[in-house]
Amino acid sequence: MHFEILVEDLSGKKALEILVPKIIGDGHTFKIHPYKGIGRIPTKLGSNNDAAKRILLNQLPKLLRGYGNTFSSYPNNYPAAVILVCDLDNKCLKAFRQELFVILNACNPKPETRFCIAIEEGEAWFLGDIPAIKAAYPRANDVVLNRYTNDSVCGTWELLADAVFTGGSQELLAKGWQMTGAEKSEWSEKITPHMDVENNASTSFCYFREKMRELT
After folding, report:
1. Where are the alpha helices (DSSP H) in 6-120?
2. Are 207 and 187 in the same domain?
3. What is the pLDDT confidence band of residue 77, given thresholds at 50, 70 and 90?
4. Which one, 57, 80, 81, 161, has least CB within 10 Å?
5. What's the domain range around 14?
6. Is there a single domain that holds both residue 141 and residue 171?
7. Measuring CA to CA, which residue among 114, 61, 112 is closest to residue 84?
8. pLDDT of residue 49
9. pLDDT confidence of 46, banded at 50, 70, 90?
C-alpha cells in the first residue's frame, strides 16, 4: 500500500515520519506533504486557489481531484490512499467531516481517502502517551499533565507548553509564532520516538492508527 499523507504544518510531518512506520511496519510506502497552515474549505469547490500559498484546506478539492486521476492510472496490484491529518481546533467535528466528504464525493474518479482529525490539536496525540512525554522531558510538570482530559477542547498545545517549556505557554507566545512553531517541531522530534502506538489514550490517535491498518 502507498500512502499520500497531507498535514497542515512541518511539526506534523516530523511526528508522522516517526509514527507511521511504527503503525504500518515494513512493506508499505508513504510520502508526507506538509502545508503552511490549515486554512478553510473554499465555498466554490472548482475555484482555483493560489497553489504557491500551500494552505491545506484551500487546496484540498484540487488535491483530491488530482489524486483521483493519478491513482486511477496505477496498476491494480499497487493500491494507494490519501490520508488527511489535521486539527479540529474549535470546529464541530460532525459538520467538518461532512464538509470534507462533500469534497471527496465531488471527485470523479474518487481517490481512496481517510480523514483523520486530531481533537483539538495534534498535541493531543502526544498527551495520549504521558510516559513518552516524561521520557522526552523528565522534568515535565506532572500537575499540568495530570489535569488533561484526553481529546478535550482545552487549549491543547498551550497545556503541553505549560508542562514542558520553561515559562509555559505565555512565555512561548511572547517569543512569537516563529519560535512557537520551532518548539512544536522539537516536541515532535523528541516525544514521538518514545511513543507506544499500541497504547495511546487519545481516541483520535487510535482512529488514525486503525484507519491506516485497515488499508494495509
Report:
1. 10-24, 56-72, 93-105
2. no
3. confident
4. 80
5. 2-121+198-215
6. yes
7. 114
8. 60
9. low
Number of domains in the chain: 2
Could you tell me if 107 and 141 lie in one domain? no
Amino acid at 205: F
Quick one: cell of 205? 490517535
Report the chain's terminal Cα–Cα distance, integer Å: 6
Distance CA 156, CA 89 (A): 9
Judging by beta carbons within 10 Å of its beta carbon (0-12, 13-18, 19+), is residue 159 exposed, middle or buried? buried
CATH number at residue 40: 3.40.50
Per-residue cell: 27: 512493506
Closest residue by Cα to residue 11 from 140, 125, 97: 125
- Is 20 in the same domain as 91? yes
Statement to judge: residues 107 and 210 lie in one domain: yes
**Cis? peptide before 109, omega within 30° of 0:** yes
Contact criterion met (CB below 8 Å) for 113 and 137:
no
CA 174 to chain centre: 25
Estimate the crossing angle of helix 10-24 against helix 203-215, to 10 degrees.
60
* Per-residue pLDDT at 43: 78
